[in-house]
Amino acid sequence: MKLFFVAFVSALALAAQDPSGNPPAKKQTTKAAAKAKVAPQKADASPPTAIPAEAVLGADGDYHYTDPKGRKWIYRRTPFGVVHLEDTPERGAAKAAAANGAGIKATEDGDIVRFERLGPFGVWKWEKKKSELDETEKAALQNSQADNKTVSKQD
Fold it and tell me: I need a labelling partner for 144 at 20 to 30 A (CA). Which of 64, 84, 92, 104 fits?
């Protein structure tokens, strides 16, 4: 087996050699080639985004800024740099819906509450004690209790 491996590696080494048997000639470098080696060009020539000095840090960790044209922007620090996106009413409505527990199904089971929410990879399930619920989970529990009351009244 070792002999086979040695023969295989030798065959690969011979196949990788130049078939003419001549050593490679040195390439002549020009000034332009030397400059290219010294200063490689960036693929993206856009400057990195900076957070404006007038931006206000919000409670959520994002910076909020209104430009001279009246457009509102959100600046966020990420591991890949600063990103900015326009602050639209739809974005605010989605944040408010998430804070109100919309999209989360809560089921009480004694002192424990079971939650279900649709995520990008399927249904996320978790459970917590009633004493450990955060604001979003409390809102989801209240919404599900209100839904249960309206369903029971209709029956």
Answer: 92
- Nearest Cα neighbor of 83 from 99, 61, 110 is 61
Nearest to 107 by CA among 126, 134, 122: 126
Q: Is 0.85 surpassed by the pTM of this model?
A: no
Could you say which DSSP state residue 131 is in? G
Beta strands in the chain (DSSP E): 56-57, 63-66, 72-78, 81-86, 104-109, 112-119, 122-129
Residue 79 has pLDDT above 80, yes or no: yes
Rounded Cα distance between 27 and 30, Å, is: 10
Report whether 117 contacts 110 (CB < 8 A): no
